[in-house]
Amino acid sequence: MEINHHPSEEHDDDKDALSAMSAIPPPRKIHSYSHQLRASGQKGHHRQRQHSLDDIPKITEALSGCGISGDSSDDEFYPYATTTNSSSFPFTGDTGDSDDYLITHQPEIGEDFQPLPEFVGSGGGVGMFKVPTRSPLHSARPPCLELRPHPLRETQVGRFLRNIACTGTQLWAGQESGVRFWNFDDAFEPGCGLGGHVRRGDEDAAPFHESASTAPTTCLMADNGNRLVWSGHKDGKIRSWSMDPSSENDDDDTPFKEGLSWQAHKGPVNSVIMSSYGDLWSCSEGGVIKIWTWESMEKSLSLRLEEKHMAALLVERSGIDLRAQVTVNGSCSISSSEVKSLLADNVRSRVWAAQLQTFSLWDARTKELLQVFNTEGLTENKVEMPSEKDQPAEDEMKVKIASTSKKEKSHGFLQRSRNAIMGAADAVRRVATRGGGASEDAKRTEAMVLAGDGMIWTGCTNGLLIQWDGNGNRLQDFRHHQCAVLCFCTFGERIYIGYVSGHIQIIDLEGNLIAGWVAHNNAVIKMASADGYIFSLATHGGIRGWHVISPGPLDGIIRSELSEKERTYAQTDSVRILIGSWNVGQGKASHDALMSWLGSVASDVGILVVGLQEVEMGAGFLAMSAAKESVGGNEGSSIGQYWIDTIGKTLDEKAVFERMGSRQLAGLLISLWVRKNLRTHVGDIDVAAVPCGFGRAIGNKGGVGLRIRVFDRIMCFINCHLAAHLEAVNRRNADFDHIYKTMSFSRSSNAHNAPAAGVTTGSHTTKSANNVNVNTEETKQDLAEADMVVFFGDFNYRLFGISYDEARDFVSQRSFDWLREKDQLRAEMKAGKVFQGMREAIITFPPTYKFERHRPGLGGYDSGEKKRIPAWCDRVIYRDTRTSPESECSLDCPVVASIMLYDACMDVTESDHKPVRCKFHVKIEHVDRSVRRQEFGRIIKTNEKVRALLNDLRYVPETVVSSNSVVLQNQDTFVLRITNKCVKQNAVFRILCEGQSTVREDEDNTMELQSLGSFGFPRWLEVMPAAGTIKPDSCVEISVHHEEFHTLEEFVDGIPQNWWCEDTRDKEAILVVNVQGSCSTETVCHRVHVRHCFSAKALRIEANQSNSKSSSLKKNEGDSKSKSSKKNDEDSGSKSHKKSDGDSGSKSHKKSDGDSGSKSHKKNDKDSGSKSHKKNDGESSSKSHKKSEGDSSSKSEKKSDGDSSSKSHKKSDKDSGSKSQKKNDGDSSCKSHKKSDEESSSKSQKKNDGDSSSYKSQSGKKSEGDSSSYKSQSGKKNSSNSSTGEESRNGHDKR
């Protein structure tokens, strides 16, 4: 039983109100009931109405006076009490027939309102209707360092962060207006706050330094070798930035400026990397890949600031366009699609380039294309040209709909309407079935990374992780998450994966899942590691640092410590929110009507949300709206824009309120305004729409929603229009269920005072489709995750079991307690079938449906032929984070709302519905993230348990390097062994080059090291593998090889351009072997001195040895190289290089798997001590240079993959002696030299007449019936030029 009072107990004010509700109104202007109360002397809109049958103010007064009314029925109202329905969420109590009412809380000191009692629906607390768990620290993620807390999206326009990169002591971020960096020493310092000198969005961020404004930054790369950071930009430029800009600027607040910059591409620079040899590689649109050699950049970097233009010009002219080099007769070996990213494989000195569906593999040293293959690992032989785009789906729909309308023009209006709607639904289905190309997009590569063991990992848009070896062979694939992979990061033996869902996962080198958590509420777009953290960047611009041992015991300690300090960083704020809902029935409202509805109660609200239904409802409009929605092209309508503008004028939009965003779905419209003094705390507005009309595709019924962040808490507002008609209760319940489950929010395209815009709402169809077989944690509905959810609109629930006349009588007598018993929505909520666990203030206003237009007062109810029964169709229902009536606002229950006002404007007559409004007072508890970061830093620095765990990370397995000094002669190879002495843990190593220098004969002890880009190797040195893992109590062999090499830019028509000034000085490089544990923050370094002795010195040393027919060289311990000499009957030899397809050179030395130092020699039948060339049909298939007359000596040489080559020199018939020399154990290579008749020591090189432009010259020597050939360079000695150092070029003769 609800409260009942007899009419005789009515107050005088109620008698005046009765006269206004009579069928024949008095001859004066009629106002709403609330206006009549004010006219009779009752002030303020906060007071509840008094009704003869529902005297609620007396009840609340009694309760506030610490007593309860003597009426027995008053026991149904409990302050701080549980409900009487056991299934009611979130309260428990005895089950009975009484109503489920409660008063939210007693008014606190300073509050000028009395909270209204509420009705609570049953069925909450489980599944998607469970209140989200909140705590001072997120329970589902490890505690993290919030270097830059999540900024409001609206504050980041033009300054969004898009990528990050780490140096040893800094974190750099590329933004849309330049770059910025944080020093790790300042990571725990407080932010500047709202009154600081930083711009909005960075108030809570750790102190940082920002650059001068540039074009948007698209990619970043740290060059620790030269303490530079390289950035690629949207305008096609590449810029360098010093890691120590403070040394150049006296004032830290002054934006620092770029160093070297040049125009690298016509389009945006998608990726920049440094190869193993210090060259900068960059990529852009159209399949363009360019190389900028370190030599050219080093020269430009050395120029003064006033020579900046000249420096840029020098670099621009030095660029090597790889696409042009692999294009022959207009046919290119690589696709013309956009090169999305580059990856430096420093283990094998290669570079990977990822395009949409293909990869290209390049040699970083020779800059040659090695292989092109697709995502399936299959070699690509042809480049497919892009096909013509299909006719846009939107245009096709317009044509179909228009043709349908014309064809059916002769039929009646209903038939034409039906055909239009059917056509729109068919267009929606047709677009959905056209998604066959989505399977191809699902395979698109989004990210690549080089793992600690030297394997390559790529991530696809369908969540697939693919492992590759260094040669482009696909090994295996995994899928641990259904969402798209956006980025990778490695640390030791761990691989971190960032997903578009905001998740981060950790896998080991075998692909096994170690851990995972929700890192951000937006996509993780970049990650980088440094200082013991893995830093992640989300699309909203927030940066968080995760300990490399998280999740683990460290997290529990930090979480416990931070929870104890909760009150130091917790803050409480409050805001008032006004919700207005009105079914306008395709009409328009006057200014007076809008003032009565919204303007009269908006003076103290901070946020105002307005929802309209039936803004526009024509069949053609609905059909076209559905067609546009299917392709995400709904921009709203002119009628919707009229309503937004009109309401904005009513609210004095420009001076007091600011429009945040809106969304229209056919006849449904929602819009939101924020008071300007609250604007700094409100943002991140997202929109959503879910159609529930015909086929769940038409927007005549459905819901539109807005989601905002208020004081870092999420609130969702949903305007609904559910199924009509008295008997369609189940359909209405189903509509709500569909909206709640499938509503998925996306960024608003009209967040900045744009028209009532549509945002792509394909999300309402993908919400359930894309989450098949995903765990429950990942598929939580957006509405279920919000801190506060408000549903409002025309729900269309009617009064049942009552006639029209009975309802009119109850309304005229204001017996709303009896009418509430007949309310369908109240009955369904009590049964837990709809709006589970949600709340509504007790209705104390007359039913809002259905009225005759422009008929004031309660006498305006529908009296026509249908005589629709009055009903409370228009409602406002909500939930917050409370789990019990005793819940108080805290970080565990951060949003607590109470209702100040809930009524209808009965004096507005422009529609058949009356507008309703509901005002909330919302208390919000949130975190001061700057203070919490300080507490986080204090715990890291002072807590003994934390320090002990972090010290354990400093452990590095003991390793031993076989030698710290290596001497190489031309083409020599030395095998360096690294041994892991630890028996429990793997060691991870990487070899860098600290620098190189030229050895001066007069100053042997002085070295002036010159670093290449990113600690790259000099071009004369090959180190392979340069990185990898070493198992416990095992060793790995590293091949350190000298290679003669000329870069492409040093050749013109195949002729070396610096032959007249060849550098014969010895060179020295210092290799640094960095060793870490599988998950350690410390690094142990081993230095190895590598010296190259030029071959001319070796010739002079060996000149006094003679008369040996052949010489064999013994291999030194730790050496993997041997050479042999071979004598030909005709005393003519050739120096030939034999190359295998797709490789840089194959040798007759065969290497066993996993052993880079062992070789096997193939012997010729005639000579067992020399290397043999394989022949076809008894004839040699290698190309050689023929010598000029009088020249009888030459060199022959064969190369193998990644290994050294040997030379064989042959003597003429006139000289029967050969020289041999054995080297001692300290040497790593040996050579044999043969003399000509005149003891010539010079070299000659001959060129093929038919080949004047190729990089590697080819000889025309072929065997009969043999069509195979090898690209080689062969040098021959000229007997007529035995005493000079000049090189002669002679034509090739064909055999």
TrEMBL record:
<protein>
    <recommendedName>
        <fullName>Inositol polyphosphate-related phosphatase domain-containing protein</fullName>
    </recommendedName>
</protein>
<dbReference type="InterPro" id="IPR000300">
    <property type="entry name" value="IPPc"/>
</dbReference>
<dbReference type="InterPro" id="IPR015943">
    <property type="entry name" value="WD40/YVTN_repeat-like_dom_sf"/>
</dbReference>
<keyword id="KW-0378">Hydrolase</keyword>
<feature type="compositionally biased region" description="Low complexity">
    <location>
        <begin position="1104"/>
        <end position="1113"/>
    </location>
</feature>
<dbReference type="Pfam" id="PF23754">
    <property type="entry name" value="Beta-prop_IP5PC_F"/>
</dbReference>
<dbReference type="GO" id="GO:0046872">
    <property type="term" value="F:metal ion binding"/>
</dbReference>
<feature type="compositionally biased region" description="Low complexity">
    <location>
        <begin position="1252"/>
        <end position="1285"/>
    </location>
</feature>
<feature type="compositionally biased region" description="Basic and acidic residues">
    <location>
        <begin position="1"/>
        <end position="17"/>
    </location>
</feature>
<feature type="region of interest" description="Disordered">
    <location>
        <begin position="240"/>
        <end position="260"/>
    </location>
</feature>
<keyword id="KW-0479">Metal-binding</keyword>
<dbReference type="InterPro" id="IPR056454">
    <property type="entry name" value="Beta-prop_IP5PC_F"/>
</dbReference>
<keyword id="KW-0460">Magnesium</keyword>
<feature type="region of interest" description="Disordered">
    <location>
        <begin position="1"/>
        <end position="51"/>
    </location>
</feature>
<dbReference type="Pfam" id="PF23755">
    <property type="entry name" value="Ig-like_IP5PC_F"/>
</dbReference>
<dbReference type="GO" id="GO:0046856">
    <property type="term" value="P:phosphatidylinositol dephosphorylation"/>
</dbReference>
<feature type="compositionally biased region" description="Basic and acidic residues">
    <location>
        <begin position="1286"/>
        <end position="1295"/>
    </location>
</feature>
<dbReference type="InterPro" id="IPR056455">
    <property type="entry name" value="Ig-like_IP5PC_F"/>
</dbReference>
<dbReference type="Pfam" id="PF22669">
    <property type="entry name" value="Exo_endo_phos2"/>
</dbReference>
<feature type="domain" description="Inositol polyphosphate-related phosphatase">
    <location>
        <begin position="573"/>
        <end position="928"/>
    </location>
</feature>
<keyword id="KW-0677">Repeat</keyword>
<feature type="region of interest" description="Disordered">
    <location>
        <begin position="1104"/>
        <end position="1295"/>
    </location>
</feature>
<dbReference type="InterPro" id="IPR036691">
    <property type="entry name" value="Endo/exonu/phosph_ase_sf"/>
</dbReference>
<keyword id="KW-0853">WD repeat</keyword>
<keyword id="KW-1017">Isopeptide bond</keyword>
<dbReference type="InterPro" id="IPR001680">
    <property type="entry name" value="WD40_rpt"/>
</dbReference>
<dbReference type="GO" id="GO:0004439">
    <property type="term" value="F:phosphatidylinositol-4,5-bisphosphate 5-phosphatase activity"/>
</dbReference>
<feature type="compositionally biased region" description="Basic and acidic residues">
    <location>
        <begin position="1114"/>
        <end position="1250"/>
    </location>
</feature>
<comment type="similarity">
    <text>Belongs to the inositol polyphosphate 5-phosphatase family.</text>
</comment>
<dbReference type="GO" id="GO:0009846">
    <property type="term" value="P:pollen germination"/>
</dbReference>
<keyword id="KW-0832">Ubl conjugation</keyword>
<dbReference type="InterPro" id="IPR046985">
    <property type="entry name" value="IP5"/>
</dbReference>
